[in-house]
Amino acid sequence: MCSSDLFLGFIAILFPPLPVWVKCGICSADSLINICLCMLGFLPGLLHSWYIIAKFPDPDYEYGSLPQDAESGRVTYVVITSPNGRQRTVQNNAARPAAAPAVNGYGTTAPMAPPVHQDQNGTWANSADGSSGGAVPPSYEQAVKGDHKVQTRD
User: Fold this and answer.
1) Non-local CB neighbours of 22 within 8 Å, separated by 6+ positions
2) Radius of gyration in angstroms for the set of CA atoms belonging to the chain, rounded to a whole number
3) Residue 77 region, left (φ>0) first, then alpha (ψ -120 to 50), else beta?
4) Of 134, 116, 133, 4, residue with least CA distance to 56
5) For position 57, what pLDDT does the model report?
6) CA–CA separation, 68 vs 11, rounded Å?
7) Which residues contact 88 (CB under 8 A, 6 or more apart)?
8) Three-state SS across 74-130?
9) Phi, psi of 54 (to 5 degrees)
10) Residues 6 or more apart whose Cβ sits within 8 Å of residue 76
11) How would you classify the pairing of strands 87-91 and 116-118?
12) Residue 133, SS3?
């Protein structure tokens, strides 16, 4: 039983005909039976609704393997189209070439900004020289030091 069936089971507690309508349609024989059972009492309609949910489970969305696939469906392939229109198929988990010219962002042609990280001593560093020179930014207390503005209601 998948999560959508469990959700329909909880919905059946609130309004038993609704899951029957989802599974079988509004104008079906099961729908009319469920409405009649709900008129007889809540419990018969609820049990019939749970029966319909169990009788018509959602299909499993398993992907079948391709006959020409040597890995029997264990590998995902991605089709890459180059700017000149040529297509090639690449494994999704294939290793990248060692000498890549530049790291481009997803969907961009410009190189990405270098990664920035903070060292254990509190200095900031990246692979390229930045304008801050690796200095730690001031704390809030240092930034507002000497700021003795008095607010008046003039």
Assistant:
1) 8
2) 31
3) beta
4) 4
5) 85
6) 44
7) 79, 80, 82
8) CCCEEEEECCCCCEEEEECCCCCCCCCCCCECCCCCCECCCCEEECCCCCEEECCCC
9) -75, -30
10) 91, 92, 93
11) unpaired
12) coil
Which of 60, 63, 64 has its CA nearest to residue 4?
60
* HSE-CB for 97 with a 13 A CA cutoff: 6
Distance CA 79, CA 32 (A): 49
pLDDT in tens, the chain (154 residues): 678 889 999 999 999 999 999 999 999 999 999 999 999 999 999 999 999 999 988 776 665 555 665 655 566 666 677 777 776 666 555 444 444 455 555 566 666 666 776 777 777 776 555 555 566 777 877 777 776 666 666 6
Round to whole Å and give the CA distance between 8 and 58: 11
> How does DSSP classify residue 58?
P
Q: What pLDDT is attached to residue 99?
A: 46
* Matching residue, tokens 């899951």: 19
- Residue pointed to by tokens 């294939």: 94
Encoded tokens for 150? 């008095």
Distance CA 135, CA 138 (A): 9
What's residue 136's pLDDT? 76
